[in-house]
């Protein structure tokens, strides 16, 4: 299906100049959100204020994200939506492959590259199929870490030269199937994680009379920085230590299987922030490789695992959500290190394998949700005060008289003080609810005045920080636990920004809350031009108009780690490609979970639920509390809900 978008604006490269943003004149909206830092040329703000996708495949018109959302909504596919952009995935694959080819040429490296995609990073069939298809010319393969993942890999059509690498703990059934798959033409390599695993392999291979293709996972002593620092080096759960390795080499020799050992594997952990760590680890991996070769293992593949990071903040520094290198630098560093080590030891340059998951898929998906409502923490309305009112209300409102430059902090402190005194009086029964409510209104009014004045100050100091405690809540139609689990669990930062009205100053600041009833269900860390902020600049909501927020680079790890907190299920998923005329094609769509599906995941039978509900309604009819027409409405409402989405509908 080809979907040309109406009123495409042609001045695709026009910069958007805004009159004022947070008091800064002439700032561009892309500046506020740091788009130029992190978007990696994939996104662009059009002069009509729409955030657009750029087609990496050519110099074609950009495609408006709000228009995509509208076009999908017209087809009944409503937010929240996980939007996969196929050309973004293709670009990442191309880049990785080209970066290695360039590094080979530049360093006169004579080996080749065989990338594999670690299935755990995104197991969704659409993604795996796209990857194996687009990766065919590069002989791109798959890495699996469990039996279900192995079954996925064996159901794909890959290049006959692609590798299928089996990592992780394995039982006899896993190993049995892996060895059998060699007979089907898969280049299945069993990477030994322990001595025990070798004994199972040895037994099964002998019974099947097949020579298995083996790898060995090495536990490096070098540690890496980043989120997975604690499980690197000695404390890595995976792989063989030097001691275990010598035992394994002996067993391989004793059983006549040393010829089977063709691959050496190491993995540092995901999102390695510092290129120096990559280099040090590669150096150590090469030491093992040359030693094992000298001990008689016919190694051909040097598998350096994953870890190639994504710069989520665009800061380009060695930090948890950023990296201090590009993919080109990553490849150049690896290849230079390996070439040097191999030449030193006079060993043929090995085929380089990497298991880059995050880099390949992270940028290819965008999670989009609509804002349902907002709670504003300020007010432009001042309450009335009468002669009989408690004097504290007067005192509170008198603070307005000195909300200015040097006295901002004092005014803020006093406003808090009087508000708290009034609250205390209410708790002790000395004032009524009516007065308390006017005092709260007065406090919100002062906050609004304080925010306005603080925005005018160049250096408002601590007051700025204190006022971020009073930003708005924008309530989004999503579940953090289902769609952005890493944001909740490991403080992952994703670039987040509104998709529309970017030619208007975003004059409000908000924390984004989700629709679970969990107070952890919120996003309060945002990547902005000036660094990480606790609030997102947003526009005031308009009645009857959708306001979409995009969470970018969510293609890696987020889709299946999520859970069913409050029973919010998978959102709708749409895969699109971009056409030459500024439109898009829907390549595939998957409906989000229905309520019936979600109920069945937690062991209810939706039909049983309906039957019980019917009986309850019927009893009410018998008792004369409900008439026949009401009965029909109730049953229909229950049935429709079962078949419907777990998220909020378009009706508001
Ligand atoms: C998770 C994992 C990867 C993927 O790492 P990325 O940083 O996402 O590239 C690769 N190899 C192994 C063994 C893994 O466990």
Give an overview in words:
This protein is α/β, with parallel strands linked by helices and 652 residues long. The chain has 22 helices and 26 strands. Strands 1, 7, 16, 17, 18, 19, 20, 23, 24, 25 and 26 form an eleven-stranded mixed sheet that branches. An eight-stranded parallel sheet has the order 8-9-10-11-12-13-14-15. A three-stranded antiparallel sheet has the order 4-5-6. Helix 4 (86-107) packs parallel to helix 11 (327-344). The radius of gyration is 30 Å and the shape is globular. The protein binds pyridoxal-5'-phosphate. Pyridoxal-5'-phosphate (PLP) binds at residues 118, 120-121, 143, 145, 167, 267, 270-271, 305-308, 355-359, 556. Pyridoxal-5'-phosphate binds at residues 118, 120-121, 143, 145, 167, 267, 270-271, 305-308, 355-359, 556.
Poorly predicted tracts of residues: 6-26
> Total number of β-strand segments?
26
- List the total number of helices: 22
Main sheet: strands, sense, barrel = 11 strands, mixed
Provide the list of bound ligands, each named once.
pyridoxal-5'-phosphate
Mean pLDDT reading: 92
Shape: globular
- Compute the gyration radius: what is it? 30 Å
What portion of residues is helical?
Answer: 25-40%
Beta-strand percent range: 15-25%
Structural class: alpha/beta
Distance between the termini: 30 Å
């Amino acid at each position: 299906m080809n979907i040309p978008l109406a009123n495409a604006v042609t001045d695709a490269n026009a910069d958007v100049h805004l009159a004022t943003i947070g008091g800064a004149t002439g700032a561009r909206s892309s500046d506020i959100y740091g788009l130029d830092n992190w978007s990696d040329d994939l996104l662009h703000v059009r002069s009509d204020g729409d955030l657009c996708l750029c087609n990496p495949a050519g110099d074609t018109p950009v495609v408006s994200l709000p228009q995509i959302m509208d076009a999908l909504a017209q087809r009944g596919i409503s937010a929240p939506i996980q939007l996969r952009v196929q050309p973004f995935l293709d670009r990442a694959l191309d880049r990785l492959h080209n970066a290695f080819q360039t590094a080979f040429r530049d360093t006169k490296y004579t080996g080749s590259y065989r990338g594999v995609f670690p299935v755990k990073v995104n197991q969704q069939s659409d993604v795996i199929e796209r990857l194996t298809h687009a990766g065919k010319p590069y002989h791109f393969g798959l890495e699996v870490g469990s039996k279900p993942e192995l079954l996925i890999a064996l159901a794909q059509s890959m290049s006959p030269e692609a590798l299928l690498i089996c990592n992780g703990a394995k039982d006899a059934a896993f190993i049995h199937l892996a060895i059998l798959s060699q007979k089907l033409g898969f280049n299945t390599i069993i990477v030994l994680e322990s001595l025990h695993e070798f004994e199972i392999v040895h037994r099964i291979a002998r019974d099947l009379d097949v020579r298995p293709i083996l790898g060995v996972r090495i536990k490096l002593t070098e540690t890496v920085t980043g989120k997975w620092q604690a499980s690197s080096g000695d404390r890595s759960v995976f792989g063989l230590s030097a001691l275990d390795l010598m035992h394994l080499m002996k067993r391989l020799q004793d059983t006549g299987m040393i010829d089977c050992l063709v691959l050496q594997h190491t993995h540092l952990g995901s999102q390695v922030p510092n290129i120096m760590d990559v280099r040090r680890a590669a150096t150590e991996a090469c030491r093992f490789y040359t030693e094992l070769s000298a001990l008689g293992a016919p190694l051909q593949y040097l598998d350096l695992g994953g870890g190639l990071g994504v710069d989520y903040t665009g800061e380009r520094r060695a930090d948890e959500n950023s990296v201090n290198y590009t993919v080109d630098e990553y490849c150049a560093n690896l290849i230079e290190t390996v070439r040097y080590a191999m030449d030193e030891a006079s060993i043929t340059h090995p085929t380089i394998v990497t298991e880059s998951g995050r880099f390949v898929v992270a940028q290819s998906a965008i999670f989009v949700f609509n804002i349902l409502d907002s709670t504003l923490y300020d007010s432009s309305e001042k309450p009335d005060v009468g002669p009989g009112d408690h004097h504290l209300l007067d005192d509170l409102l008198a603070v307005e008289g000195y909300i200015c430059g040097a006295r901002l902090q004092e005014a803020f402190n006093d406003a808090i003080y009087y508000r708290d005194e009034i609250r205390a009086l209410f708790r002790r029964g000395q004032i009524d609810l009516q007065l308390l409510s006017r005092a709260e209104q007065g406090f919100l009014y002062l906050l609004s005045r304080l925010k306005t004045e603080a925005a005018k100050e160049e250096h408002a100091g601590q007051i700025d920080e204190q006022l971020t405690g009073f930003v708005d809540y924008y309530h989004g139609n999503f579940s953090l636990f289902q769609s952005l689990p890493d944001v909740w669990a490991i403080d992952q930062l994703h670039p987040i920004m509104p998709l529309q009205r970017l030619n208007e100053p975003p004059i409000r600041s908000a924390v984004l809350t989700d629709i679970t009833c969990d107070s952890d269900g919120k996003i309060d860390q945002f990547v902005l031009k000036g660094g990480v902020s606790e609030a997102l600049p947003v526009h005031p909501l308009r009645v009857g108009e959708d306001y979409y927020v995009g969470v970018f680079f969510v293609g890696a790890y987020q889709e299946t780690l999520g859970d069913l907190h409050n029973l919010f299920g998978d959102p709708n998923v749409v895969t699109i490609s971009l056409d030459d005329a500024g439109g898009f094609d829907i390549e595939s769509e998957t409906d989000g979970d229905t309520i019936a599906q979600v109920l069945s995941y937690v062991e209810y039978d939706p039909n049983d639920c309906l039957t019980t509900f019917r009986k309850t309604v019927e009893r009410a009819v018998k008792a004369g509390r409900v008439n026949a027409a009401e009965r029909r409405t109730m049953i229909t409402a229950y049935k429709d809900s079962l078949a419907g989405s777990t998220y909020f509908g378009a009706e508001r």
